[in-house]
Amino acid sequence: QHFSMRVFTSGFLLAPTTGTNNPLAITPSPLTCEDLVRPLDQLDLHHLEGRRALVAGSLSDPAHLEHFKRRESASINFANETSKTSIIRVFGFGDSCEYLNSSIRLEGSGFTFYHNNLTVTVLYTSCPDCLVIRFDNESKLLRLYLFSRRREVEQKEMEEFSTQAKCLNMPPPVMMDPTKELCPEQTSSDPAAQTGEKREGQKA
Length: 204
Description:
single chain; alpha+beta; Lipocalin; eight-stranded antiparallel barrel; 11 strands; Apolipoprotein M; Calycin
């Protein structure tokens, strides 16, 4: 079965790194690699909550890339419950959907899963409804994802993400097909949702 995905090549321009009185200052345009790949200062759970669709991803492992290409759609949803914070990841494969519900621990600019060694960091983005998320395993960057509340982002937003991947020495992003329907939402309290802590490495 053929799945339509596109590799995005950036035309985004980088400014030369120059001295500044404020090392965290973001110039309107263009941005340096240092600006583009900096983590957020602090995660706001209220900003995270709600569903976002996967728009594009850059993956360093060819095996993970092939698995990524088999997905017709993917989305994430953060939920803050009484005793824990959860992330629900939903993957669409043809006529079937897979739901993975994992407990996470928020830490500064990112979060960690309770049952593996993955570290997740949320990076700067100029896109107001997007999340740029990097997955690292023992200090090795594995994956960089762009999520949005929209199925497609603007050209300039996609170019920015592509440049972020380039700055991190990652391959050009592969774009999801926005015409494919997302799987229905499923709450983290739904007993039918699968718990996927033991398979994070492959499914993240």
